[in-house]
Design goal:
5 helices; mainly alpha; Pectate Lyase C-like; elongated
Length: about 180
């Protein structure tokens, strides 16, 4: 990628500076409040985001596009992830206990060491075959728990897309988070 791919106008740069100042002035470390201040939409602006070690417990990320995101060692306990796209996400050592994953695409996600106690899944959840048995055993008893007829063909044929604009926004988000750390 060349320098020209990252060029922003003076007006856009001033807008980014204003957002950085707003985050610096905010008296919070709450992820959701910071996302609101940054005027991000978690349903589309967190593709491939690095959210490792982030506390997203009790969070509402229903139908969010989080494919390729890094949630390693993140706390997603009690999170509402219904219908979210977690395809190719890194959830290694993440705490997903009591998370609602009904209808979620978890194809090709790394769940190694993840806490899956009492998760909620359904027939519409698209689960990588290597994690399916583990997730079934860890899930809460629900009437939708039978995954025997789970259709994985749609999830297997999907490809991860690269969005330059989202990457730019996420880059600035990461810079701001690092400034706050």
């Amino acid at each position: 990628m060349s320098e020209a791919d990252f060029w922003v106008s003076e007006k856009e740069f001033e807008g980014f500076q204003a957002l950085i100042q707003a985050v610096e002035a905010a008296d919070t470390d709450n992820f959701y409040e910071l996302v609101r201040i940054l005027e991000l939409d978690p349903r589309k602006d967190l593709i491939e985001a690095d959210l490792s070690e982030t506390d997203l417990s009790n969070g509402y990320l229903s139908f969010a596009d989080l494919h390729g995101a890094n949630f390693s060692s993140a706390n997603l306990s009690n999170a509402d992830l219904r219908g979210a796209n977690l395809q190719n996400a890194n959830l290694q050592n993440a705490n997903l206990s009591n998370a609602d994953l009904r209808g979620t695409n978890i194809q090709n996600a790394n769940l190694q060491g993840a806490n899956l106690n009492n998760i909620k899944i359904s027939n519409s959840s698209r689960i990588d075959p290597r994690w399916e048995k583990i997730m079934k055993k860890s899930s809460q008893s629900t009437e939708n728990q039978n995954l025997g007829n789970l259709d994985l063909s749609i999830a297997l044929s999907q490809r991860t897309l690269f969005y330059t604009s989202s990457l730019l926004v996420l880059g600035f988000l990461l810079i701001i988070i690092l400034l706050l750390a």
